[in-house]
Amino acid sequence: MTNSKTVLVSEEALSRFIASALQHEGLPAGDAKIVGELMAQADAQGSDGHGVIRLPQYIRRIRAGGINVRPNIHIATERAAMAVIDGDNGMGHLVVSRAVEVAVEKARVAGVAWVGTRASNHAGPASLYARMPMAHDMIGLYFAVGNANHLPPWGGMDMLLSTNPIAAGIPADKEPPVVLDMATTVAAYGKVKAKAKQGEQMPEGWMIDRQGKPLTDPLRAEEGFLLPIGGYKGYGLALMVGLLAGTLQGAAMGKEVVDFNHDDVTPTNTGQAILVIDLAAFGDAKMFKHSVDVLVRDIKSSARLPGVEQIWLPGEQSHQRRADAAAHGIPISAVLFAELGELAKGLAIEKLSQVTNQ
Fold it and tell me: Phi-psi region for residue 212, left (φ > 0), alpha (ψ -120 to 50) or beta?
């Protein structure tokens, strides 16, 4: 649960700390609260490459003018079952949350709805948004263009594609929901950043250098590139996701993608898309969720290979991490905790507190 290299914090305290920092930088209180809650949820489910670790970077971009703290997030164009949200260069968490709201509203009427974004920004882990429609007995399918290119075309060396994640949230009845969240690369770049922050090496297979040799030192990540899942198939999938989440909405793709790790000034024009499916449009929602339960139990109880203790469903481990975080606190690295302490001091806000009843 924790060790000498980690510190436990409550999700509520983490959310409040993030919101306080962002409000200090000019976000309205309500917007800062939404972003804080979503970033803390990322850490709670184990997506630590997209949680509070990103806060200093967001603040840096805000101060440099790379993010609009008071955007006019609005519908640029729409029809019955679709819309494009113009984020006005606002925080991505706010833009995509609005896109999900619109998609849910439209899916209630049309049965399905596709809502894409442009002029958005980094929004954290994809599963946050694929999960949102489940509260309405709906399925969420989420696609996004990553905020820096770390993937060349298959066989090439020019960085023209990003991690371009996909997520799907399928509600169940008694069982935990089935939630897939995956980059189209073997590892998301946020995981590389997390390894660097923790002083750990990357496993072989995440990255290779420009000579095609394994690259395991995250501090040397810029000397190589991420590998796609499934070889050339992953490259093709990354391309398709980018076309759907970026190009279709008029957002950045290919050479237009801004590396927000190194450029704090240029608007990223990030593109995301959410497809929402209303279960009621296809039949009885309760019956569908019961059928998901049956399938989940069949998979969980199916025969296992020697040495395999448990068969996992997509999202099951994140679900357990959320429960553990609620009961005991969220583990974050001691190094990051110290950095956040210095950040709080510089902003003259209350420091992030630890969970004391360990």
Answer: left
